[in-house]
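thread from #wetlab-drylab

HS: before we spend reagent money on co-crystallization trials with heme C, can we at least see a predicted complex? here's what I'd submit
DV: go for it
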Amino acid sequence: MNAHKYKIIVLIIIALIFTLFISMGFAQPAQDESTTCITCHSLQGMGASIVQMWKDSKHFQNGVGCYDCHKAEAADVDGFEHHGKRIATIVSPKDCAQCHEQEVAESDGSHHAKGAQFIGSLDNILGEIVEGAAAANSGCRQCHGSIVQVDKNGKLDAQTWPNTGIGRVNPDGSKGSCTACHSRHSFSVAQARQPEACGKCHMGPDHPQIEIYTESKHGIKFNAVRSTGVMNLEKDEWVVGKDYTAAPTCVTCHMSATPTQKVNHDVGRRISWTLRPPVSIKLDSADVRRDRMKNVCLQCHAKEHTENFFTQYDEAVKLYNEKFGKPAKSIMDKFYADNKLTKTPFDEDLEWVYYELWHHEGRRARMGASMMGPDFTQWHGFYEVAKHFYNKFIPDAEEIQKGSTKDVMDSEFHKWKKGLTDEQKKEILDFYKKRYGE
Ligand code: HEC
Ligand code: HEC
Ligand code: HEC
Ligand code: HEC
Ligand code: HEC
Ligand code: HEC
Ligand code: HEC
Ligand code: HEC
């Protein structure tokens, strides 16, 4: 008997033992069609850890097997023959929708599903052109999602996959990637409820949500208790104020159930401003959205605390808008209209200064205020905004055109530049004398 035949016989024996083991050992074996997948993939080097993670999952307990997710329809361009079955590697929201229709519909209606549609944005010029395509593939698109391309043989194009970006455009036309938050192959809710599930993308200089959260009293409290079990992260139903009370995580505020609201996979339902553009605007039905958010806070805080918090937050956004965002934008708009700047973005210094002003510093100021991160509001936020507005943006604009900033600088907001009052100057001297004796 040659070595090859010997190997095959051993494989078959292992497969038989394994099948027996599965049918005896577990209450609800995966569907028969997945038995061969499991047998083969359990062997070392063929993805044994994938099988193990799946065995620890709710899917295994409920008899959902490999083939239920990976089977390909005849129309699926990424389908391929694999040991007698037609399968696809990508499992898209459309595949999950066979059993989770509602979650898929909610995700589909959210901004997350539109994540890959950023062509035309300044960020895209920066990523694709100023930096380069490979930077965009390993950077931007790993968060936002690629448009997955498939070759004639059903192979996934290496430029576009692996990729589990939030708005990935799948070969079947569906949008998004459920495994962006639910790590495969455990697909656990407990994991998705933790801030790190969001933090892969919601971080960094232009949207530091996880850093802000970690700095906030909410993050401090969550980290203090997360390993004690009081957060009940494993529970099927997870209602704030009922199943846990110690601290909110990202999803508590943006997705999860309250006694009167259901879980929802549209993360935008509870936010009333958009903090992303150069000037923040209120979204449609802002009051309804705000009430949904307040309803979360009120499970743990008093009414006055909640109302007053939102007064502080709204005022911080308006301050940024009126004092820095709108004036800077009006100067830029005029320069473009008068051809003082070329229509090519990022070829002039002022364009970088302005971009960082709203896209990095201005966002941090607003985002810090929205989620209780005072250091991001102040030192990473308004401080940087003010520093670059007064010392870089305005002087650079004056250099491009003398007098172009006069109207802005004459406004009430900026008249302090013309000199503080004697009383204000004396206050400063007194403060340092009292504190440090000089
Ligand atoms: C006879 C053994 C065997 C069986 C049966 C089998 N697989 Fe595989 N599978 C493999 C091996 C080996 C690889 C790795 C192939 C490679 O590296 O080119 C693989 C790769 C895969 C991949 C990744 C393909 C890629 O190139 O991205 C998926 C997904 C997959 N298998 C799913 C399944 C499913 C679902 C089933 C059951 C319907 C199944 N397999 C049955 C051996 C098997
Ligand atoms: C609940 C649905 C689901 C089930 C059940 C499932 N998978 Fe997957 N699998 C996925 C998803 C989602 C991906 C990620 C692919 C992508 O979208 O990029 C994936 C990816 C893979 C890959 C390729 C990615 C990699 O990391 O190498 C392999 C191989 C694979 N699955 C094998 C299996 C096997 C074997 C089983 C059964 C033990 C199984 N899957 C069960 C959803 C599932
Ligand atoms: C670390 C993950 C990550 C990377 C890398 C990343 N982004 Fe983003 N991007 C996000 C997140 C998260 C948001 C939403 C932030 C928010 O709402 O606070 C966002 C917002 C945006 C927006 C604003 C969308 C809107 O609706 O206003 C655009 C455009 C954008 N990104 C394009 C890009 C481009 C192009 C690149 C590469 C140059 C890039 N991003 C790199 C995560 C990322
Ligand atoms: C932005 C992160 C994120 C993405 C993307 C995501 N989920 Fe979820 N999902 C969660 C969180 C968090 C929970 C737990 C919510 C809770 O119980 O408080 C959850 C819960 C679930 C549940 C348990 C039942 C329920 O609704 O609570 C299912 C099923 C589910 N998700 C399916 C999906 C599917 C299918 C997709 C892809 C369309 C998807 N998820 C994409 C974060 C996400
Ligand atoms: C063939 C049906 C089927 C498919 C396909 C399927 N699931 Fe599930 N899923 C289930 C069942 C059944 C449960 C257990 C339901 C329960 O506990 O209420 C479940 C549970 C879940 C949970 C909750 C896990 C937990 O820890 O409570 C998540 C998250 C989830 N699925 C995500 C997905 C994602 C993402 C996909 C696609 C990649 C997918 N499922 C594909 C049937 C399916
Ligand atoms: C205590 C509740 C709470 C927690 C915890 C929380 N957020 Fe928020 N989040 C808010 C509020 C309030 C807003 C502003 C809503 C508004 O504008 O009306 C917001 C706004 C946002 C925005 C919108 C930014 C934009 O571009 O408009 C994103 C994105 C976000 N949060 C993500 C996260 C992430 C990721 C986490 C965890 C790391 C998190 N949030 C934790 C309450 C919370
Ligand atoms: C894989 C990357 C990724 C992950 C993981 C992710 N997000 Fe996002 N999120 C984005 C991107 C990109 C956007 C901006 C999409 C756009 O507007 O084009 C966004 C937007 C948002 C928004 C603004 C929605 C709106 O309607 O304006 C909220 C809120 C949000 N995410 C919350 C969360 C929460 C909470 C989690 C974790 C449970 C999470 N995200 C996980 C990438 C991600
Ligand atoms: C699950 C309970 C829970 C939810 C939901 C919750 N918080 Fe908190 N919050 C806390 C806890 C606990 C602290 C920390 C108190 C301390 O350290 O003394 C806190 C602290 C704060 C603080 C810090 C200031 C202070 O009083 O010390 C603010 C502001 C705040 N929360 C606002 C909100 C807002 C606004 C919402 C809704 C968007 C919200 N919280 C949702 C539990 C919650």
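DV: The pocket of heme C (ligand 3) is lined by residues 118, 121, 123-124, 126-127, 136, 139-140, 143-144, 201-204, 207, 276 (CB under 6 Å).
HS: ok that's useful, forwarding to the group
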